[in-house]
Amino acid sequence: MSKLLANTSRRALCIQPNDLAFLTGYCKIGFTVGLKPYMLFYDMSYLSYLSFIPIYKERVWGGRNFQYHLGRSLPSQQKLGESWDVVDREDSQSIVKSGLYQGLSLRKLIELHAEDIIGPHWPTNKRFPLLVKWLDCQERLSLQVHPPKALAQELGGEPKCENWYIAECLQNASLFAGLKKGIDKKSFEKALEDHKVEEYLHTICVKRGDSFFVPSGRLHAIDAGNLILEIQENSDTTYRVYDWGRLDLDGKPRALHREQSLRSIQFKDCEPKPIPYSPGYQLLAQCPAFRIRKYDLNPDSLPLKTSIGEGAILLSIIRGQLQLIGTDQQDPRDLCTGQTILLPYSQHFAFKALVPTTVLLTDQFTS
């Protein structure tokens, strides 16, 4: 007959198929022990937030700031430019770091219980719609553009809008975004040929706490000295316009995508502005793909609360530390600087700040 797993307090049942009863509110996974088939049923009423193991990406422009600023334990001495903290793609899968679902991929969780995690009517075969990553930009990144939605399929790519939050930066750090006024396609093409691109780009000086939205079709590059949290549509299509004559980690020039880029760039997109940091609450981005809100919290602040049915939410801690109110089922390492957790649709949460804390809430991505 059915057997409780050790120390689960009925949070999971391990039973043989011929012992199946009518179980509601449980998520099932099949497996075998020896030659005997079993089914593992997770009680979804105990579903808490989900934290994931970061996936690090070596980049020629990267460094070690995930260790110095985010307190991460990093592999080897590689130049790590990206940390993919929430991702559901064929070639990269977030794995649950701790708790009852430790070791399961985000894809598997959605296949098993999409409605509890993301919301009603979410197809089990549909990818999680966002990708959350940290960028450690020790050197200037390539000049890039993502294809607009109307053109992406024709070019064989995916559209992508994204938002950059400047978590840390050096003095005089900057971004490139859009073009200077009066620049048209013909003059920009000539600038590419003459290697004078920088003169035609709109430069934005940034400070810690600034936020910048990059829609599809906007020409952009991140300059050296920025540590950025990037929240984006789940796309990995990037057309490299120009790479400043740099060589890759293997000593060879990186591929450029000039034809696709010139078709994708919105040449009337001139001199966009960032949202400068302001204490307290800020709406940082609102687009069809997502909404991002920023909260500054202190130990004496009211709890930060979410409700059941409000929608799946990503909570990113830029700096500081939170505590989940009302349960001891938490790992303090999940709720500190640099962490992003997924708050499922079917649960409500309340967090308090243990120290001065800045968090981003990303939602409205499941419509």
Unreliable stretches (pLDDT < 50, length at least 5) are 1-29
Main beta-sheet strand count, sense and barrel state: 6 strands, antiparallel
Gyration radius over CA: 22 Å
Q: Give the spatial strand order of the biggest sheet.
A: 5-24-22-26-20-19
Count of extended strands: 26
Q: In what range is the share of β-strand residues? A: 35-45%
CATH superfamily of the largest domain: Jelly Rolls
Q: For the terminal residues, how far apart are their CA atoms?
A: 42 Å
Overall 3D shape: globular
What would you say the CATH architecture of the largest domain is? Answer: Sandwich
Q: State the helical fraction.
A: 10-25%
Total helices: the number is: 5
**Average pLDDT value?**
88
* CATH topological fold name of the largest domain: Jelly Rolls
Any idea of the CATH class of the largest domain? Mainly Beta
Structural class: mainly beta
The total domain count is 3
**How would you describe the oligomerization state of the chains in this entry?**
single chain
Descriptive terms for the model:
6-stranded antiparallel sheet; Jelly Rolls; 367 residues; disordered N terminus; 5 helices; mainly beta; 26 strands
Tell me what you see in this structure.
The chain is mainly beta and 367 residues long. The chain folds into three domains: 3-46, no CATH class; 50-264, Sandwich (Jelly Rolls), CATH 2.60.120.10; 282-363, Jelly Rolls. It has helices at residues 65-68, 106-117, 149-155, 185-194, 258-264; strands at 3-4, 12-15, 26-33, 36-43, 50-51, 55-63, 80-86, 88-89, 92-93, 130-137, 143-145, 162-169, 174-179, 201-205, 211-214, 220-222, 226-233, 239-242, 282-287, 290-297, 304-306, 313-319, 322-324, 340-343, 349-353, 357-363. The chain has a six-stranded antiparallel β-sheet with strand order 5-24-22-26-20-19, with no helix packed on it. A six-stranded antiparallel β-sheet has the order 6-7-10-17-12-15, with no helix packed on it. It has a four-stranded antiparallel β-sheet with strand order 1-2-4-3, with no helix packed on it. A hairpin with a 2-residue loop joins strand 3 and strand 4 (36-43). The longest helix has 12 residues, at 106-117. The protein is globular, with a radius of gyration of 22 Å. Mean pLDDT is 88; it is low at 1-29.
